[in-house]
Amino acid sequence: MSFVTLTIDGVTVRARAGESVVEAAKRVNIHIPTLCYLKDLEVVSACRMCLVRIEGVGKLMTGCSTPVVEGMVVVTEDEQIAQHRRTLLRLYLDNHPNDCLTCQKAGECELQNLSYRYDVKFRDHEGARRGKPTAEFSDTTSPYILRDESKCILCGRCVRTCAKVETRNVLTFANRGFVTKISADADQTLEESTCVSCNRCVVACPVGALVDRRVYGKIRPWQSKTKGVKCKACDYGCNMEILVDKGTPVAVRAKAPQGEDRPLCLKGRLMTEFEYVYGPEAPFKKIDQDDKRVFVETDWADALELSGIFEKLQSLREEE
Fold first, then answer.
1. Which residues are CB-contacts of 131 (< 8 A; sequence separation ≥ 6)?
2. 99, 101, 156, 301: which sits with the fewest CB atoms below 10 Å from its CB?
3. Looking at residue 127, what is its pLDDT?
């Protein structure tokens, strides 16, 4: 593997040849803002937040898609770049509900963090907004995922992360222009669609458009202590996070999958929830009923497909 040397904001960086400017900057703790970019997803350069200045190039370039080369000199922020980012953020906020005080994503929302960084605030206007801002959520059919179209910034992270697992590909862009939205299959609800509730899309979402319903309303991010654990449902060992409130585990949430096609799955998340939380909240499974898909409440033994050994697991847990 070959390496190149470049300069980013006056700092000398040694990076892999072909690596993006965004990833090279991370090597020296320089954070270039992004909203649509995630390292393991296809690069689309849609949000334009990562524009940087490269010496000798006559226009700003997207840091997520521009590969580093030997001797490159990069400026990640100056007044022109900062003003460009402020303009973009104003447009995002103009089409976003002003409910940060009650949003489950507050404190972890990437749009909120960037708006704070660049001192961009909500402003009143009478223009149209996307989604359904009058409803708290636009899709409440799933017991595992809540959708809010009014908060969606169309970054496409959910679509691309869903497509990473070949057998899924549930989410896609629908319509065009101002009425573009994220659709599940043929514009179905999450319950009606082929979604398996793995929550991979929830992990990828940078805002509150997709929320883990099993966590919603239980605890705010800054109130909880977290404990990282590995899922034991299969050999993948996906990373999970236990949210702890005053010493008591209250919820489980999946962390970002690692690797090209590494999945997350509902069974693994429920297995981790049963092991660490096992509260009164019942699990659900999706079944075909009257020619349509519906969620039905079930018991833990059925949800985890452990009917034969469920009692043994329960007794082992009580002995701990």
1. 138, 148, 149, 150, 151, 152, 181
2. 101
3. 86
